[in-house]
């Protein structure tokens, strides 16, 4: 135990004496959260849309008014026929067109159901997703009010995404993804670099010849990063709570538990990378390309998985961040307990076992 | 020096990687307090043999006893009783001299007052006690190597393995380094050293010369030169490894 202590103390010294490491570990997460929260906000303001109103009754006028008043949309054109839609999209004049069917108000009153078409310019899939989501939220809210008055069943089903994020805040979507990204960088990238550095400098040989056992070396490497990642989890959650008013509707303990589990996934991945990489440069590149890009692109962090081509949707299943993001959104926004996230927890645990097993195999081959 | 007590016994040691035989029937003994030179061209199998003796890798067949323990069966006990230093890595650059010493001492279980006494003693001998809080990064290569050797001795190992310890070091520092080696050997530590410098080979009590995985010669430098009828170790080496 004393041996391990001496080793861990050394690791902390390496971390705190390197300005760049300290910067990456403590300043970067805060800066990223602020940037994603304030600047790269995925919220839309004044998106240009068109209305094609075949009904022209009180209900459609009220919905149009509400959309204009929401601040998300700027009603740019009142169209008179379907033929006008495509040219407007091609010119880039409109991002979305709302089409009300004839007799909208009447049908809503009589049948308790009416339909609205939301046509969005999906060449920017992300914006399209957001705009239809926003519109859906407004329309659905309107519909619910009508139904409450007449006592009928709700006629428009709510999209889960919007329902749990009624304020439609972009930062609510960013925090889980950002947390995944930061934990990946801190845990996987920093650990793989720090283990590879010992290999590159030849100190690993000295350590292996010492009475330290290989698992002690790895545990000694991992513990500091596990603790620092936990500090980061607390920082991100506190900031998103106090600065961006993001709620934690579910159990905080469960949230911290799942985040720690994901940190373990990232750490074991970092260990695995270090068994493959021959030097720090390689470790960093593998971390960048194998971890960062998929985390950002394929986990549903920025681009909704539903909008991806089928092949990428399948691929996204082997991205650990995807499951982490699903799980913590469920805890934070929907207030779900363990019974709602056991599948994700199981999958993440599976990743830990997989990466550790692969690392041990690689390690034994190398020592041979 | 009377060499009676053996600390390393190697008999019929083979190490094969697939069809390639890196160590081919090695047999030798090393005595307590001896400076044992381990020479050979690059790729002759020195490093493989040294890794086996340090408990890093197991022999394919044959036995090696180091400090009284079988390397294949009790590598952990072997590791406790040896020190190791290589040219490739000396000490952690971003830690101070003292922190490096405390780290390695801690790894070998030397802590508290025992550590402080030992470390102060070793640094005083080097007249370097006042510099103990300096970072390794600021030191010359020569000092780094001397300190690395000191650190390798911090847990009083029975045997110290030195893998080309003086590579890239100037002749004056090399001389000082060898004085440290002599002093350690005089106090009873066995030194097992690999080198490419033939003048250093002359400083060893006995040397082995390896080529193609086999031991070609094993004797004192003087006997080797005499048996081959040459003047220098350089000629012995070239004659045996060509």
How would you explain this protein's 3D organization?
- The complex is a heterodimer of chains A (368) and B (242).
- Chain A is α/β, with parallel strands linked by helices and 368 residues long.
- Chain A has two domains: 2-40 and 169-367, no CATH class; 47-163, 3-Layer(aba) Sandwich (abc type-2 transporter like fold).
- Helix content of chain A is 69%, strand content 7%.
- Chain A has a four-stranded mixed beta sheet with strand order 2-1-3-4, with helices on one face.
- In chain A, helix 3 packs across helix 6 (125-150).
- Chain A is elongated, with a radius of gyration of 25 Å.
- In chain B, strands 6-7-8-3-9-10 form a six-stranded mixed beta sheet, with helices on both faces. A four-stranded antiparallel beta sheet of chain B has the order 2-1-4-5.
- Chain B has one domain (34-44, 79-241): Rossmann fold.
- In chain B, a hairpin with a 2-residue loop joins strand 1 (6-17) and strand 2 (20-31).
- Chain B has helices at residues 46-53, 75-80, 97-107, 112-125, 141-152, 171-186, 198-203, 221-228, 233-241; strands spanning 6-17, 20-31, 35-40, 61-66, 69-70, 82-86, 159-163, 190-194, 206-211, 214-219.
- Chain B is globular and about 50 Å long.
- The interface between A and B is medium-sized, with 25 and 27 residues.
List keywords for this structure.
heterodimer, A: 368 residues, alpha/beta, 2 domains, four-stranded mixed beta sheet, 15 helices, 4 strands, elongated, B: 242 residues, Rossmann fold, six-stranded mixed beta sheet, four-stranded antiparallel beta sheet
